[in-house]
From TrEMBL:
Name assigned to this protein: Uncharacterized protein
Domain of life: Eukaryota
Protein species of origin: Boothiomyces macroporosus
């Protein structure tokens, strides 16, 4: 084979390859320009990022609300369990802790004689080991000296007028006769 023919074949192949490369390059330019537009893609990516930021903020707010609701529900359950426990174990509380339980100063002797369980309990515990005040405070009645005191100031005139009216109308006599008839 002559050398010129080989060179001709190589140049021919190179020319054909060059044409194909030009077409490919042109097609790449067209696709980059119109199909895969770089700037449109960048704008689209920016829009997606903004949308994702909004979505992220929304999800964080919603998760915060859900966590608050769960916390409230858990707190209600916890308080309900405490209330249930207190209702089931109310007999373990002292009378000071339970509103509405009357103060008992002394057991009736007949109940103590009949019930050996109370006697055993009192023997074990003793009488009031923690020195809890069981008796209510004594209410001191008004002394007779206070009732004998005379009114002073502006009430003195009112009292004397009432006394005169009652004497004149016979209210005291009527009251005393009514009280005697009841006896």
């Amino acid at each position: 084979m002559p050398l010129s023919f080989v060179r001709l074949a190589i140049t021919y192949k190179a020319d054909i390859a060059g044409e194909y490369f030009k077409r490919l390059k042109w097609r790449g330019y067209r696709s980059r320009k119109f199909v895969f537009d770089f700037y449109n893609r960048q704008e689209y990516i920016q829009q997606i990022m903004k949308r994702m930021d909004k979505m992220r903020v929304f999800v964080q707010e919603r998760s915060g609300q859900i966590m608050e609701e769960r916390h409230i529900i858990e707190e209600e359950k916890r308080l309900e369990e405490i209330d249930k426990y207190a209702r089931n174990h109310h007999h373990l509380l002292g009378t000071k802790n339970v509103p509405g339980v009357p103060l008992v100063n002394n057991f009736l002797p007949s109940i103590l004689k009949d019930n050996s369980g109370i006697q055993e309990c009192l023997a074990k515990i003793g009488k009031n080991p923690r020195k809890i005040r069981i008796k209510p405070k004594e209410i001191v009645p008004h002394s007779p000296k206070e009732a004998e005191k005379k009114c002073q100031g502006p009430f003195l005139v009112l009292l004397t007028n009432l006394a005169q009216i009652s004497v004149e109308s016979g209210v005291e006599k009527a009251f005393t006769t009514y009280a005697k008839s009841d006896d």
